[in-house]
């Protein structure tokens, strides 16, 4: 399993050390590459800490945030929320490889701090920056949110007949981040085919589906089609 999948955890306290110019270039190049591939309009905002200073909007969950990736795209792009999850998670794993701390943020930030062009929708941001050892406060927040994961048997229909490569990829799905750690996306193995679905009531659920599919695809080698019951295509 890719080390970034195994090692990533949500980080909410950042050091004051800015991201060096060279590393910023790498991040921007990564963002541009994913935008070209996906049709999304992600943007690296180097100095966006203001979105995390309002106690009313951020509940004091984060400290020292300076840079974020704004996750947005054309409002009429098909499967916008799911794609945002799929490509956003790809970026998050790359940022993890760069040694940076990250966290998906869909709720606890001040959306009003970002000027979003007409016709585009922003659903989330990913905070990004240098981190030290987890502070006590960070540990308490993660404990309160619970990092507990459901067993694979609860996330995979057809668990009893699934081959080893599917179970290995489901382990990567199990470790995926999800909004409020809900872990809603469910996979199905049936006669050699893998599909994924989510009982969606909010945009965040579709984002979680995209994230879960990316983890599966990354571990099993291949890609997923978008949409409810999208199929896995092994390379
Ligand atoms: C779509 C999405 C939105 C999230 N929004 C927030 C948020 O607003 N505030 C926050 O502190 N964490 C947020 N998280 C982080 C989750 O709480 C976290 O991924 C989950 O609790 C699992 O913990 P882990 O990432 O450390 O494995 C979000 C995660 C996802 C995937």
TrEMBL record:
Domain called Putative nitroreductase TM1586: residue spans: 3-220
GO MF term list: oxidoreductase activity
Annotated source species: Lawsonibacter hominis
Highest taxon of source: Bacteria
Protein name: Nitroreductase family protein
Cited Pfam families: TM1586_NiRdase
